[in-house]
Design a protein that fits this description.
2 strands; Four Helix Bundle (Hemerythrin (Met), subunit A); mainly alpha; single chain
Length: about 250
């Protein structure tokens, strides 16, 4: 029996999320190959492409109602390469190689933390507030270092900068497995009506990226990574004052 056009279309749409995940996997692998050849700018750009494809595959799967357990596992495996192995190899080749054993162990530590972060996300998916991520998301951590390399694609030669990079890698790795909350922006729905100011802000950001992509992308990446600890610190500082104010209100009432 010949399948109807509707059923053929549905099967074709079902393949699309997997193709995007394959593109994410390819971009991560290409980043590794480029880093090993010393093409650090190309490696950073490949991670940026992987970031876009990783964001699209899940959205398209939900929009077309083609989510599956196979797709989720395949996406997790691709993410481990793109957000764990690829940035680890890039960091080692670009700046940590001269540190010897300490350098490759720091890269491996980043990979382990990324794997733990992805495993925790897979286990607790749907159990947490969708407005927040618990721990720094692996794509954000990878894109932070990709934006740094994109801004400065020349291999690090300075001992001071190399050791600074080592410290940043360790701190960012710990952020991934921490319980610091980061905003996911999943509650921001582009299909709904948005205030005029939001559209203006998005247009401004796109314009700035087009004018100076190296600096603007670096500022966005650094700002997101820092936002989690800063917001947590502000909450801890203001919490006692808020509790004191609430208790005083209760006494007056």
């Amino acid at each position: 029996m010949t399948p109807t056009p509707r059923r053929q279309l549905k099967r074709g749409i079902y393949v699309l999320p997997s193709l995007l995940t394959t593109g994410n996997l390819f971009a991560g692998f290409f980043s590794i190959v480029s880093a090993l050849h010393g093409d650090f700018r190309e490696a950073a750009i490949a991670l940026g492409i992987a970031f876009v494809l990783d964001g699209l595959d899940g959205r398209i799967a939900r929009m077309t109602n083609t989510e599956s357990e196979f797709g989720k596992i395949y996406d997790s495996l691709a993410d481990l390469l793109s957000w764990g192995a690829a940035p680890a190899v890039l960091l080692l080749s670009w700046g940590l190689w001269d540190l010897g054993r300490v350098g490759w162990l720091a890269s491996f530590f980043f990979l382990v933390c990324a794997a733990l972060r992805l495993a925790r996300f897979s286990v607790h998916v749907g159990d947490t507030d969708r407005r927040f991520f618990i721990g720094l998301p692996t794509p954000a951590a990878a894109c932070l270092f990709a934006s740094v390399v994109f801004f400065w694609p020349t291999r690090l030669e300075s001992v001071v900068l190399t050791r600074l990079l080592l410290g940043v890698v360790i701190v960012v790795s710990l952020f991934m497995v921490s319980k610091i909350r980061y905003r996911s922006f999943k509650d921001f729905d582009l299909r709904r009506r948005q205030p005029y100011s939001v559209i203006l802000l998005l247009a401004t950001v796109i314009t700035l990226i087009a004018l100076d992509p190296e600096r603007v992308l670096l500022l966005i990446a650094v700002g997101y990574v820092v936002a989690g600890p800063v917001e947590r610190g502000v909450v801890r500082l203001t919490a006692p004052a808020m509790r004191l104010r609430d208790s005083s209100h209760e006494e007056q009432s």
